[in-house]
Amino acid sequence: MKNQIHFFIALFFTVLLCSCGKSFKYAAKDNGFYSGMAVTVGDIFNPETIKILQNDCSIIVYENSMKWANLRPNKNFWNWNDIDSLVEFAEKNNMRVKWHTLFWHQQNSPFVSSSWTREQAIQMMNEHIETIMSRYKGKIAEYDVVNEMFNEDGSMRQNIWYKTIGADYIELALKKAHQVDPDAKLLLNEFNNEEKGHPKADAMYNLVKNLKERGIPIDGVGMQLHLDARISYSEDAIRQNIQRYEDLGIAVSFSEVDVRIPIENSKAYESAQENIYLMLYKIASEMPNVTSFITWGISDKHSWVPYTFPGTGNALLYDEDFKPKPVYNEILKELKK
Protein backbone atom coordinates (compact mmCIF):
# COMPACT_ATOMS: atom_id res chain seq x y z
CA MET A 1 0.00 0.00 0.00
CA LYS A 2 2.83 2.35 0.93
CA ASN A 3 4.54 1.65 -2.42
CA GLN A 4 1.31 2.53 -4.24
CA ILE A 5 1.07 5.81 -2.34
CA HIS A 6 4.69 6.63 -3.19
CA PHE A 7 3.99 5.78 -6.85
CA PHE A 8 1.00 8.11 -7.07
CA ILE A 9 2.84 10.91 -5.29
CA ALA A 10 5.72 10.57 -7.74
CA LEU A 11 3.30 10.47 -10.66
CA PHE A 12 1.53 13.61 -9.42
CA PHE A 13 4.76 15.59 -9.20
CA THR A 14 5.94 14.29 -12.58
CA VAL A 15 2.74 15.51 -14.21
CA LEU A 16 3.00 18.81 -12.34
CA LEU A 17 6.57 19.35 -13.48
CA CYS A 18 5.72 18.49 -17.08
CA SER A 19 2.81 20.91 -16.97
CA CYS A 20 4.91 23.70 -15.52
CA GLY A 21 7.58 23.22 -18.18
CA LYS A 22 5.11 23.16 -21.05
CA SER A 23 5.95 25.52 -23.90
CA PHE A 24 3.51 28.14 -25.14
CA LYS A 25 2.44 26.19 -28.24
CA TYR A 26 1.72 23.00 -26.29
CA ALA A 27 -0.17 24.90 -23.62
CA ALA A 28 -2.30 26.39 -26.42
CA LYS A 29 -2.85 22.96 -27.99
CA ASP A 30 -4.04 21.66 -24.63
CA ASN A 31 -6.63 24.43 -24.74
CA GLY A 32 -7.83 23.34 -28.15
CA PHE A 33 -6.22 25.74 -30.63
CA TYR A 34 -3.07 26.26 -32.67
CA SER A 35 -0.78 29.10 -31.60
CA GLY A 36 1.02 30.98 -34.33
CA MET A 37 2.73 34.09 -35.67
CA ALA A 38 3.08 35.95 -38.95
CA VAL A 39 6.71 35.93 -40.05
CA THR A 40 9.02 37.58 -42.54
CA VAL A 41 11.48 35.68 -44.72
CA GLY A 42 14.39 36.54 -42.44
CA ASP A 43 12.64 35.22 -39.32
CA ILE A 44 13.07 31.58 -40.33
CA PHE A 45 16.85 32.01 -40.70
CA ASN A 46 17.55 34.11 -37.58
CA PRO A 47 18.53 31.91 -34.59
CA GLU A 48 16.87 34.35 -32.17
CA THR A 49 13.49 34.28 -33.91
CA ILE A 50 13.73 30.58 -34.77
CA LYS A 51 13.88 29.79 -31.06
CA ILE A 52 10.73 31.83 -30.40
CA LEU A 53 8.88 30.20 -33.30
CA GLN A 54 9.84 26.72 -32.16
CA ASN A 55 8.64 27.43 -28.64
CA ASP A 56 5.45 29.32 -29.45
CA CYS A 57 4.12 28.22 -32.84
CA SER A 58 2.24 25.25 -34.21
CA ILE A 59 1.07 27.33 -37.20
CA ILE A 60 2.87 30.05 -39.17
CA VAL A 61 2.03 32.39 -42.03
CA TYR A 62 3.98 34.89 -44.10
CA GLU A 63 3.03 38.49 -43.44
CA ASN A 64 3.53 39.59 -47.07
CA SER A 65 5.41 37.05 -49.18
CA MET A 66 2.32 35.17 -50.37
CA LYS A 67 0.59 38.27 -51.74
CA TRP A 68 0.47 38.87 -55.50
CA ALA A 69 3.01 41.72 -55.67
CA ASN A 70 5.69 39.61 -53.96
CA LEU A 71 4.76 36.17 -55.23
CA ARG A 72 4.11 37.10 -58.87
CA PRO A 73 5.48 40.58 -59.59
CA ASN A 74 4.92 40.08 -63.32
CA LYS A 75 2.81 37.73 -65.39
CA ASN A 76 5.63 35.31 -66.20
CA PHE A 77 7.64 35.12 -62.96
CA TRP A 78 6.67 33.32 -59.75
CA ASN A 79 8.86 33.78 -56.67
CA TRP A 80 8.57 30.34 -55.08
CA ASN A 81 11.82 30.38 -53.09
CA ASP A 82 10.50 32.20 -50.03
CA ILE A 83 7.40 30.03 -49.71
CA ASP A 84 9.31 26.82 -50.33
CA SER A 85 11.64 27.85 -47.50
CA LEU A 86 8.71 28.45 -45.16
CA VAL A 87 7.12 25.09 -46.01
CA GLU A 88 10.44 23.33 -45.44
CA PHE A 89 10.91 25.13 -42.11
CA ALA A 90 7.38 24.24 -41.00
CA GLU A 91 7.77 20.58 -41.93
CA LYS A 92 11.06 20.37 -40.06
CA ASN A 93 9.45 21.89 -36.96
CA ASN A 94 6.09 20.11 -37.13
CA MET A 95 4.10 23.28 -37.84
CA ARG A 96 1.10 23.96 -40.04
CA VAL A 97 1.32 26.60 -42.75
CA LYS A 98 -1.44 29.09 -43.54
CA TRP A 99 -1.64 30.93 -46.87
CA HIS A 100 -2.36 34.64 -46.73
CA THR A 101 -3.91 35.53 -49.10
CA LEU A 102 -5.14 34.40 -52.52
CA PHE A 103 -7.23 37.51 -53.28
CA TRP A 104 -7.10 41.02 -51.79
CA HIS A 105 -7.68 44.57 -52.94
CA GLN A 106 -4.14 45.63 -52.01
CA GLN A 107 -0.60 44.53 -52.93
CA ASN A 108 -1.63 43.30 -56.35
CA SER A 109 0.78 42.94 -59.27
CA PRO A 110 0.84 45.67 -61.93
CA PHE A 111 -0.61 43.34 -64.56
CA VAL A 112 -3.79 42.71 -62.52
CA SER A 113 -6.27 44.80 -64.48
CA SER A 114 -9.70 46.26 -63.83
CA SER A 115 -10.23 46.31 -67.60
CA TRP A 116 -10.38 42.52 -67.85
CA THR A 117 -13.64 41.01 -69.03
CA ARG A 118 -15.44 38.69 -66.65
CA GLU A 119 -14.11 35.69 -68.57
CA GLN A 120 -10.53 36.98 -68.50
CA ALA A 121 -10.71 37.70 -64.77
CA ILE A 122 -12.14 34.26 -63.97
CA GLN A 123 -9.43 32.66 -66.09
CA MET A 124 -6.73 34.58 -64.19
CA MET A 125 -8.33 33.78 -60.84
CA ASN A 126 -8.49 30.07 -61.67
CA GLU A 127 -4.90 30.09 -62.92
CA HIS A 128 -3.73 31.70 -59.68
CA ILE A 129 -5.53 29.14 -57.53
CA GLU A 130 -4.53 26.16 -59.66
CA THR A 131 -0.85 27.13 -59.82
CA ILE A 132 -0.49 27.72 -56.08
CA MET A 133 -2.69 25.03 -54.62
CA SER A 134 -1.53 22.23 -56.90
CA ARG A 135 2.09 23.06 -56.07
CA TYR A 136 1.47 22.99 -52.31
CA LYS A 137 -1.28 20.37 -52.15
CA GLY A 138 -1.00 18.61 -48.80
CA LYS A 139 1.58 21.13 -47.57
CA ILE A 140 -0.53 24.24 -46.92
CA ALA A 141 -3.16 23.43 -44.29
CA GLU A 142 -5.44 26.41 -44.80
CA TYR A 143 -5.97 29.40 -47.05
CA ASP A 144 -7.33 32.90 -46.63
CA VAL A 145 -9.08 32.66 -49.98
CA VAL A 146 -10.40 36.23 -49.93
CA ASN A 147 -9.22 38.97 -47.60
CA GLU A 148 -11.22 42.08 -46.60
CA MET A 149 -14.23 41.84 -48.90
CA PHE A 150 -16.46 44.30 -46.98
CA ASN A 151 -16.71 48.03 -46.37
CA GLU A 152 -17.35 49.26 -42.82
CA ASP A 153 -21.09 49.57 -43.49
CA GLY A 154 -21.29 45.91 -44.49
CA SER A 155 -21.55 46.52 -48.23
CA MET A 156 -19.30 44.58 -50.59
CA ARG A 157 -15.94 46.20 -51.27
CA GLN A 158 -15.59 47.21 -54.92
CA ASN A 159 -12.25 45.47 -55.40
CA ILE A 160 -10.82 44.48 -58.74
CA TRP A 161 -12.39 41.00 -58.62
CA TYR A 162 -15.81 42.37 -57.76
CA LYS A 163 -15.58 44.89 -60.58
CA THR A 164 -14.44 42.41 -63.23
CA ILE A 165 -16.32 39.26 -62.18
CA GLY A 166 -19.15 40.35 -59.91
CA ALA A 167 -20.35 39.47 -56.41
CA ASP A 168 -20.04 35.76 -57.14
CA TYR A 169 -16.23 35.96 -57.38
CA ILE A 170 -16.00 34.71 -53.79
CA GLU A 171 -17.99 31.54 -54.34
CA LEU A 172 -16.19 30.90 -57.64
CA ALA A 173 -12.84 31.16 -55.84
CA LEU A 174 -13.98 28.84 -53.05
CA LYS A 175 -15.27 26.24 -55.49
CA LYS A 176 -12.06 26.26 -57.51
CA ALA A 177 -9.88 26.09 -54.39
CA HIS A 178 -11.80 23.11 -53.06
CA GLN A 179 -11.57 21.40 -56.44
CA VAL A 180 -7.78 21.74 -56.51
CA ASP A 181 -7.15 20.71 -52.88
CA PRO A 182 -10.22 19.17 -51.20
CA ASP A 183 -8.34 18.70 -47.91
CA ALA A 184 -7.26 22.31 -47.44
CA LYS A 185 -9.32 24.46 -45.07
CA LEU A 186 -10.80 27.50 -46.83
CA LEU A 187 -11.35 30.77 -44.95
CA LEU A 188 -12.63 34.28 -45.54
CA ASN A 189 -10.65 36.87 -43.58
CA GLU A 190 -11.68 40.35 -42.38
CA PHE A 191 -11.06 43.07 -39.79
CA ASN A 192 -13.66 44.68 -37.50
CA ASN A 193 -15.78 41.55 -37.83
CA GLU A 194 -15.40 40.20 -34.30
CA GLU A 195 -18.44 41.66 -32.50
CA LYS A 196 -21.96 40.54 -33.33
CA GLY A 197 -23.99 43.63 -34.22
CA HIS A 198 -21.22 45.42 -36.10
CA PRO A 199 -22.33 45.90 -39.75
CA LYS A 200 -19.22 44.18 -41.10
CA ALA A 201 -19.50 41.26 -38.66
CA ASP A 202 -23.15 40.73 -39.54
CA ALA A 203 -22.42 40.99 -43.27
CA MET A 204 -19.70 38.34 -42.98
CA TYR A 205 -21.98 36.03 -41.04
CA ASN A 206 -24.82 36.43 -43.54
CA LEU A 207 -22.44 35.75 -46.44
CA VAL A 208 -21.01 32.62 -44.83
CA LYS A 209 -24.45 31.37 -43.83
CA ASN A 210 -25.65 31.82 -47.41
CA LEU A 211 -22.62 30.04 -48.83
CA LYS A 212 -22.96 27.19 -46.35
CA GLU A 213 -26.66 26.73 -47.03
CA ARG A 214 -26.02 26.56 -50.77
CA GLY A 215 -23.28 23.95 -50.40
CA ILE A 216 -20.37 26.24 -51.33
CA PRO A 217 -17.16 24.91 -49.70
CA ILE A 218 -16.30 27.19 -46.76
CA ASP A 219 -14.59 26.02 -43.57
CA GLY A 220 -13.79 29.08 -41.54
CA VAL A 221 -13.75 32.78 -40.89
CA GLY A 222 -10.71 34.81 -39.92
CA MET A 223 -11.16 37.56 -37.37
CA GLN A 224 -8.06 39.73 -37.70
CA LEU A 225 -8.41 41.45 -34.32
CA HIS A 226 -6.09 44.40 -34.86
CA LEU A 227 -7.28 46.04 -31.66
CA ASP A 228 -6.62 49.26 -29.73
CA ALA A 229 -6.14 49.20 -25.95
CA ARG A 230 -7.94 52.56 -25.68
CA ILE A 231 -11.17 50.99 -26.94
CA SER A 232 -13.56 48.84 -24.92
CA TYR A 233 -14.56 45.59 -26.63
CA SER A 234 -17.55 43.47 -25.72
CA GLU A 235 -16.57 39.95 -24.73
CA ASP A 236 -20.22 38.94 -24.86
CA ALA A 237 -20.66 40.26 -28.43
CA ILE A 238 -17.50 38.43 -29.55
CA ARG A 239 -18.67 35.20 -27.96
CA GLN A 240 -22.13 35.52 -29.53
CA ASN A 241 -20.55 36.05 -32.92
CA ILE A 242 -18.31 32.99 -32.57
CA GLN A 243 -21.20 30.91 -31.27
CA ARG A 244 -23.36 31.57 -34.33
CA TYR A 245 -20.49 30.28 -36.49
CA GLU A 246 -20.27 27.22 -34.26
CA ASP A 247 -23.98 26.66 -34.91
CA LEU A 248 -23.21 26.70 -38.66
CA GLY A 249 -20.31 24.29 -38.29
CA ILE A 250 -17.80 27.03 -39.19
CA ALA A 251 -14.37 27.40 -37.56
CA VAL A 252 -12.98 30.74 -36.41
CA SER A 253 -9.35 31.81 -36.62
CA PHE A 254 -8.05 34.71 -34.56
CA SER A 255 -5.91 35.44 -37.56
CA GLU A 256 -3.84 38.66 -37.20
CA VAL A 257 -3.93 39.65 -33.55
CA ASP A 258 -2.18 42.66 -32.10
CA VAL A 259 -3.29 45.15 -29.44
CA ARG A 260 -1.74 48.58 -29.94
CA ILE A 261 -1.20 51.23 -27.29
CA PRO A 262 -0.12 54.89 -27.53
CA ILE A 263 3.64 55.33 -27.58
CA GLU A 264 3.39 58.31 -25.25
CA ASN A 265 2.28 57.33 -21.77
CA SER A 266 2.27 53.69 -22.84
CA LYS A 267 2.52 52.42 -19.26
CA ALA A 268 -0.97 53.74 -18.60
CA TYR A 269 -2.42 51.35 -21.19
CA GLU A 270 -0.44 48.19 -20.49
CA SER A 271 -3.06 46.89 -18.08
CA ALA A 272 -5.84 47.44 -20.62
CA GLN A 273 -3.76 45.70 -23.27
CA GLU A 274 -3.17 42.74 -20.98
CA ASN A 275 -6.88 42.47 -20.21
CA ILE A 276 -7.75 42.39 -23.92
CA TYR A 277 -5.17 39.72 -24.66
CA LEU A 278 -6.29 37.62 -21.70
CA MET A 279 -9.92 37.97 -22.79
CA LEU A 280 -9.09 36.76 -26.30
CA TYR A 281 -7.04 33.79 -25.12
CA LYS A 282 -9.80 32.90 -22.65
CA ILE A 283 -12.37 32.93 -25.47
CA ALA A 284 -10.08 30.85 -27.68
CA SER A 285 -9.65 28.32 -24.88
CA GLU A 286 -13.34 28.04 -24.06
CA MET A 287 -15.03 28.13 -27.47
CA PRO A 288 -14.47 24.88 -29.38
CA ASN A 289 -14.63 26.30 -32.90
CA VAL A 290 -11.76 28.77 -32.35
CA THR A 291 -9.02 26.76 -34.03
CA SER A 292 -6.06 29.15 -34.12
CA PHE A 293 -4.64 32.27 -32.49
CA ILE A 294 -2.05 34.01 -34.66
CA THR A 295 -0.30 37.22 -33.64
CA TRP A 296 0.61 39.52 -36.54
CA GLY A 297 4.36 39.45 -36.07
CA ILE A 298 6.87 38.17 -33.56
CA SER A 299 8.06 41.30 -31.79
CA ASP A 300 7.51 45.04 -31.66
CA LYS A 301 10.79 45.52 -33.53
CA HIS A 302 9.22 44.78 -36.92
CA SER A 303 5.52 45.27 -36.26
CA TRP A 304 3.45 46.96 -38.96
CA VAL A 305 1.51 48.90 -36.30
CA PRO A 306 3.63 52.10 -35.91
CA TYR A 307 3.61 52.64 -39.66
CA THR A 308 -0.10 52.01 -40.09
CA PHE A 309 -1.36 53.65 -36.90
CA PRO A 310 1.09 56.51 -36.21
CA GLY A 311 1.61 57.30 -32.55
CA THR A 312 0.86 53.74 -31.45
CA GLY A 313 2.88 50.55 -31.09
CA ASN A 314 4.06 48.00 -28.49
CA ALA A 315 1.28 45.77 -29.82
CA LEU A 316 2.81 42.28 -29.61
CA LEU A 317 3.88 39.84 -26.92
CA TYR A 318 7.62 40.30 -27.42
CA ASP A 319 9.46 43.60 -27.08
CA GLU A 320 12.00 45.08 -29.52
CA ASP A 321 14.77 43.00 -27.93
CA PHE A 322 12.77 39.80 -28.54
CA LYS A 323 12.11 39.38 -24.83
CA PRO A 324 8.67 38.18 -23.67
CA LYS A 325 6.66 40.93 -21.99
CA PRO A 326 4.78 40.51 -18.70
CA VAL A 327 1.57 40.04 -20.72
CA TYR A 328 3.13 36.98 -22.39
CA ASN A 329 3.84 35.41 -19.03
CA GLU A 330 0.32 36.15 -17.78
CA ILE A 331 -1.18 34.49 -20.85
CA LEU A 332 1.05 31.44 -20.46
CA LYS A 333 0.07 31.19 -16.82
CA GLU A 334 -3.63 31.19 -17.79
CA LEU A 335 -3.12 28.62 -20.54
CA LYS A 336 -1.43 26.25 -18.09
CA LYS A 337 -4.27 26.35 -15.57
UniProtKB/TrEMBL annotation:
Keyword NADP: no
PROSITE patterns xrefs: GH10_2 (PS51760), PROKAR_LIPOPROTEIN (PS51257)
GO BP annotations listed: xylan catabolic process
Cited Pfam families: Glyco_hydro_10
InterPro entries named in the record: GH (IPR017853), GH10 (IPR044846), GH10_dom (IPR001000)
Known EC number: 3.2.1.8
Residues annotated as domain GH10: 18-334
Any one GO MF annotation of this record: endo-1,4-beta-xylanase activity
Keywords, sorted A to Z: Carbohydrate metabolism, Glycosidase, Hydrolase, Polysaccharide degradation, Signal, Xylan degradation
Reactions this protein catalyses: Endohydrolysis of (1->4)-beta-D-xylosidic linkages in xylans
Top class in the EC scheme: hydrolase
Keyword set includes Ubl conjugation: no
Family: Belongs to the glycosyl hydrolase 10 (cellulase F) family.
Protein name per UniProt: Beta-xylanase
The species this protein was found in: Treponema succinifaciens (strain ATCC 33096 / DSM 2489 / 6091)
Lineage, top ranks: Bacteria, Pseudomonadati, Spirochaetota, Spirochaetia, Spirochaetales
